[in-house]
Design a protein that fits this description.
By secondary structure, this protein is an alpha/beta fold. The chain is about 55% helix and about 15% strand. The strands form 2 sheets. A 6-stranded mixed β-sheet has the order 1-2-3-4-6-9, sandwiched between helices. Helix 3 (about 80-100) runs antiparallel to helix 10 (about 225-240) and helix 11 (about 245-255) packs across helix 12. The protein starts with 6 loop residues before the first strand and ends with a helix. The mean pLDDT is about 95.
């Protein structure tokens, strides 16, 4: 067991388990969380005894996504700072895709925005019945950091989810979309992810590594990495300038708090 402030890390019987551990904030992914996720992945990837990596969330949810409250308080402005923020967000997400070891997301409760993108980047996603997925970013004037969804669903589904800010996709619907592998009863998502990881842990790790690389290459050869970078550049252009919707959302958040800002956002769409 290693010491972190925003997550728990344990490596036993060939499996590294990363538990996002800010339950009081629905495991929102702030700067420290992202730094520590990378540290935990470094530990897992450098440990020859680890054959698979499971990521889950403590408390009521997997994660609500990138930490808007932290962003609200920091008030980032300008090209350079936004390039740094978005690069950290993007690179952390893609660590799960690029890891030489298989990655499994065990999801319950909210799994939204940046957290949804982490689950998409994992090789396998197991969802409890309570899991809720979505990409609400456009509803409050933000862009998509890691545009993986169109590569894992189809363009029609991805456009509907992203362009309307869908954020109530239940576990069974997510499975039908192809972004969840298995739906299990509440409370069994981590155990199921561990069962899958234990199966992988028996197989020759070099064989797993090269086969994962081959599967990933089937996407990357079609230009996935270039497309993701292009989308990130567009998001940087949006965030560094600041959309009117994002400015209005943050103004409400600073004046009345993040909960009120989310309610304000939702009211804009409630009568449509």
């Amino acid at each position: 067991m290693s010491n972190f402030s925003t997550l728990l890390y344990a490596a036993e019987q060939g499996i590294a388990h990363i538990t996002l551990n800010r339950p009081e904030r629905l495991n929102a992914l702030g700067k420290q969380s992202l730094v520590e996720i990378n540290m935990a992945l470094d530990l897992a990837e450098s440990d020859d005894s680890v054959r698979a990596i499971v990521v889950s969330g403590a408390g009521k949810a997997f994660s609500s996504g990138f930490d808007l409250k932290e962003q609200m308080e920091a008030r980032p402005e300008g090209d350079a700072i936004w390039r740094e923020i978005l690069a950290r967000d993007f690179d952390t997400t893609m660590r799960f895709w690029d890891s030489p070891k298989p990655t499994i997301a065990a999801v319950h409760g909210a799994c939204l925005a940046g957290a949804f993108e982490i689950a998409l980047a994992c090789d396998i996603t197991v969802a409890a019945e309570s899991a809720i997925f979505g990409e609400p970013e456009l509803k409050f004037g933000a862009g998509i950091v890691t545009m993986l969804l169109p590569w894992l669903t189809g363009p029609k589904q991805a456009k509907e989810i992203i362009l309307t800010g869908l954020d109530r996709i239940d576990a069974h619907s997510a499975r039908e979309l192809g972004v969840v592998n298995r739906v299990v009863p509440e409370g069994e998502h981590v155990a199921e992810a561990m069962r899958i990881a234990r199966t992988m842990a028996v197989i020759d790790p070099n064989l797993v590594r090269v086969t994962k690389s081959a599967i990933n290459h089937s996407f990357e050869a079609r230009g996935m990495k270039a497309a993701l970078q292009h989308a990130l550049d567009l998001d940087h252009a949006v965030e560094s300038k600041g959309s009117p919707d994002k400015q209005a959302f943050m103004a409400v958040a600073r004046e009345r708090g993040m909960r009120e800002a989310i309610q304000w956002r939702d009211r804009r769409f409630s009568e449509r």
